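Please, structure for the following, as tokens.
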Amino acid sequence: MKKTISVILSIIMLVCSLSAAVNAYAYKKSEAPEVSQGVSFSVDQVGISAFKLLSIDINDMSNSDFYCAKFIPEKTAFYEFIFDTDYSGSGSVSMLMAFISDENDKYKNYSVCGEFTDEQKAALEEQGFETSKNPTMSAELEAGKPYYLVMVNVGGKSYKSNVIINEHSHHKYSDKEKSYVDSETLENSMDGAYYNACDSNGCNYIDVTKTIYAVKSISLSKTSYVYNGKEKKPTVTVKDTKGNKISTKNYTVKYSKNVNVGTASVRITFKNDYKGYFVKNFKINPKGTSLKSVTAAKKGFTAKWKKQGKKTSGYQLQYATNSKFTNNKKLVTIKGTGSTSKKVSSLKSKKKYYVRVRTYKTVNNKKYYSAWSAAKTVKTK
């Protein structure tokens, strides 16, 4: 209940009038009258101002005067708190929050009802609250434990309700909540479920018959390709949080920009037991080239390579003094594809160098590189 009230407090200024009189209309927790199953009792609903609600300490509700009744069930079961008053149609902006809470003010069920504009309903629904015309609600309660009917009426309308507590009989139906796939990060994806539930008297009964485990990972069979003018379509594998593969029947795939050099993508759109989508990217890199020769020169060398004109912006020549290209390495960029040789000078004489070449393509200000060619060695003069 504390959590629920704290959320409602954040939107109370939007939903409720601030001009209602400040009046207490119920009891502190220690004073709440004990009521019995099947025996009608009355609660007075005198409106209070939003300022009063904003001033309460939600971490210590016991001293607030919102406790209407105390109920100790004789057996563990679902119970319904039935109200005889319709709280809509008052003609003024007002809101009633009703809770079934335990001794520690943890709510077992709640109801939000009243007279709302479409904008106010949308604000409540955004916070996860459904609105109703009547606060009648049901919840599972344990035998011998005290529970409280807590009611907060904010706004200009006051009224009196007769309430009766009966054992609740479920009106069951079966449904499915699809597993949600978050498009930003799979860490925020959520389980879904097949379940049985009750749709009578605000009942919160739910029995999950099958869990639809959330998507944990989406992988591609390849994340990079070499351009060859053909479409690239890596295979998609989707797994859930239990490590099981999710059937392809539960999603469709659509590839984009998957022919030319650049970043291609595949959009995975979920269906059946799942909802949402996710996009995975992969690269298409330019085709590489190879060194034709590396000829020694005085304190340098001249490298020649095969021309690669398709989907290529230029070349990069790299040289170093070891085969792993970690010692004294240098990189030379040659823009354009017209030149297929490069003279390198100002090196150490009589020194062995390892040389290799690759192509690059610039797409949307981003460079994509081919694999390096096989290296050749040369000893400077």
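The chain has a mean pLDDT of 88. The two ends are 85 Å apart (CA to CA).
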